[in-house]
Amino acid sequence: MEFGFTEEQMMFRETIYKYAKNEIYPLCEEADLKAEFSHEVWGKLGAMGLLGLPFPEEYNGSGADVVTCCLAAEALGHAGVDSGHMLALGAHTYLCTDTLYKHGNEAQRKKYVPKLATGEWIGCMGLTEPGAGSDAASIQTTAVKKGDRWVLNGSKTFITNAPVCDLCVVYATVDKAKQHQGITAFIVEKDFKGFSTGKPFHKMGVRASATSEVFLEDCEVPEENVLGEVGMGFAYTHETLSWDRSALLAPFVGGLMFALEQCGQYATDRVQFGKPIKSFQAIQHKLADIKVIMEASRMAVYRVAFDKDAGLPLNHMHTSIAKAFMGDWGMKAASEAVQIFGGYGYIHDYPIEKMLRDAKLAQIGGGTSEIQRFIISRLMSF
Amino acid sequence: MDYTMTDEQKAIKENFANFCQKEIAPRAALLDRAGEDEVHSLIKENMKKLASIGYLGMPHEEKYGGTSNDLISQAIAGEEVARACASTFLSCGASYGLFGMPLKMFGNEDQKQKYLPGIIKGDIVGCFGLTEPEAGSDAAAIRTSAVKKGGEWVLNGTKTFITNGPIADVALIMAYNDKEAGPGGGVTAFLVDRNAPGFSVGKAFDKLGFRGSPTSELVLEDCVVPESAVLGNVGHGFIQAMQTLEFGRIGMATVALGIAVACMDEANRYSKERKAFGKPINRYQEISFKLADMMIMTDISRLLIYRAAWAKEAKDPESAVIASCAKLFASESATQIASMAVQVYGGYGYIKDFAVERLYRDAKLGEIGEGTSEIQRVLIAKSILARFKK
Fold first, then answer.
1. Which CATH class is domain A123-232?
2. B370 catalytically annotated
3. Which of A103, A353, B290, B367 is the most buried if burial means most Cβ atoms within 10 Å?
4. ipTM value
5. CA distance linking residue A298 with residue A313, whole number of Å
6. Looking at chain B, which residue has its C-alpha nearest residue A289?
7. How many angstroms separate the CA atoms of B349 and A326, rounded?
8. Are strands A226-227 and B126-129 parallel, antiparallel or unpaired?
């Protein structure tokens, strides 16, 4: 057992951190305030190769391992890049593009992955429906084969990047009687007939990521756009879990590093009763609690990344613990950070207010904390 | 990066789990309830048993009978010992660790030869004397004095809350030789044999938990020790003690983890057997989510402990802080988990026939011993804040 990073990984992290701090962080506050996805931020992420990290160079990627992908995400969060754009990156690169890369045939890969890896195209993943959240296998969107095309009908909701997407990996059932074994993945371009997206949701946090419904009304998808095998879609969504619980959580780890720095500086500068508030133990203890949560969640998140890099089978105990811990304890940490800032933590002028709103998503998105506990307790009952 | 155990570490886990569940766990309730004299003999027997599988020699060199295992391996074995019997973990740790580690790090060859082989075999028991009635968290406030007279040192003062005090053959005593030396200086560590003139052991404390591990005061009244009893350099005792406590923190985190895992195992097993309203209670989310919380917190505790152990050996500049994080998280998790485990057992958890009642009492020590939770938070915060200038 050893928990170090290679020198190369640390140098890469440092490069990303510096770049993001100077180039991206200054754009984030306004994007959050206006609740607008920033194409400028997206362009900068793309320019640094951050939207295609795990893919081979021939597809415009960098062939990075999972730990490196996590370090990049952590560095962005550490630099103060908002969780909204980080979620957009996560949904695009790891939930959409990676699924397409992993299960696509060579023609599909060649056609889509290079454009997605640079960020020229924006991708999203359409699984969740109004009636199918935690119970994802119960989706109602149907796909019926008609000649050389599939006709999709249904609606998706809470789809990150949908309002700005060029492409959506849509999950639909070809046979409801087969339950999860009927679920199939389709590559749907935004210009396909019958595909449309709804008005962006007005969200509590991660506001710079655009989220909406996706409507499929007799949406026509050519046969060559079936992704992987018919009936295997649910298994593919399962594979995204290891990304969901590593690279998509890493920005929150970085966010806690950012919070520690913000809080440490604020507690040093802020004077009450004639001394900096950092000299009060009540403030010191909150800082310590945030630090413990940062270190602990970091261990749990990189374990999932290590498992994936090592080619170990998906370990649900590891992924669910990472997700539940980051979500629930991360929320506590964000709340303590706001408390250190007092009234200033409650207003938008300081970067901590946003953190609390953003942290709440980690308890909900990509499998609620309750679903994680359900999974963990079921594994314990055997 | 590698989160997997080596084959050797896996073997250590399995061997210790098997041995401790067979030889140590069945005696845990007995130790908890035994009278003072009986506790002394039972705990020494347990230490001998664990010595027989090499536990007390894990951090020590081969030439003294040890096996020079890495810190993570020690934590792996320690968790299994603590899961079986927390008191046994504590008495072993105070002897081979709190007494043995400073001896390993700072002792001369004669001192090591004199004590380490016996400690490792479980033939002699050591203890660590830092805390005083007026100096707990504020360890620099100790008052025990050491005055050099001719070729000997004369020690005067009282130590308290000394694990193994009543059964120790030898104590490492921290005393001031120079009150004026300034912060961190002027303290010297002495190896004091039980039969040294002027050394006596107070009555064993009647404790909430860890009742199988005897604790007492140590009294030094014109206690005379030879020059050869000085450990390392005169004036280095405080730094030696602080370095020792870094190991101690990982140890206290490990015993908290062992207690928490024992609670989780008990609650998990019971919840499958116990039926209410026609089905096992683990089918209710009120129960099963508690079990999940126990799993999350024990697992995270273990990760932090391994990280702290690794950081210490990798000479990571943050190793002391990570040890504090591990100790803080593991110990506070253990009290919460113990409380949940009692709750899962309901009325049965409140009576002494079931292990969770003992574990609930044992768990509390984690938040107090080897630096309270409050002290850990102060230390962690201090390290964070050191970077910021106005």
1. mainly beta
2. yes
3. B290
4. 0.95
5. 21
6. B377
7. 31
8. unpaired
What topology is assigned to A240-381 in CATH?
A: Butyryl-CoA Dehydrogenase, subunit A; domain 3 (1.20.140)
Residue given tokens 């709103």 in the structure block:
A357
Mean pLDDT, residues B285-289:
97
What is the b/e burial string over A41-54, where b = at least 16 CB atoms within 10 angstroms of the residue's CB?
Answer: bbebbbebbbbbbb
Write down the domain spans for chain A: 7-118, 123-232, 240-381
User: How many beta-carbon pairs under 8 angstroms link A with B?
Assistant: 145
pLDDT tens-digit readout, A323-375: 999 999 999 999 999 999 999 999 999 999 999 999 999 999 989 999 999 99
What is the spatial distance between Cα A75 and Cα A53, in angstroms, rounded to a whole number? 14
Q: Are strands B170-176 and B126-129 parallel, antiparallel or unpaired?
A: parallel
Mean pLDDT score of chain A, rounded to an integer? Answer: 96
A7-118: which CATH number, 1.10.10.10, 1.10.540.10, 1.20.1250.20, 3.40.50.1450?
Answer: 1.10.540.10
Task: Report whether A322 contacts A362 (CB < 8 A).
Answer: no
Burial of A380 (0-12, 13-18, 19+ CB in 10 A): buried
pTM of the full predicted structure?
0.96
Contact predicate B233/B256, CB 8 Å: no
Cβ contact (<8 Å) for B384 and A296?
A: no
Q: Please report residues of A whose CB lies closer than 8 A to that of B377.
A: 281, 284-285, 288-289
Residues 6+ apart with CB under 8 A from A378: B288
**In order of start, what are the domains of chain B with their CATH numbers?**
7-125 (1.10.540.10), 128-238 (2.40.110.10), 245-385 (1.20.140.10)
Three-class DSSP category at A211: strand
User: Could you tell me the two tokens for B344?
Assistant: 């899962």
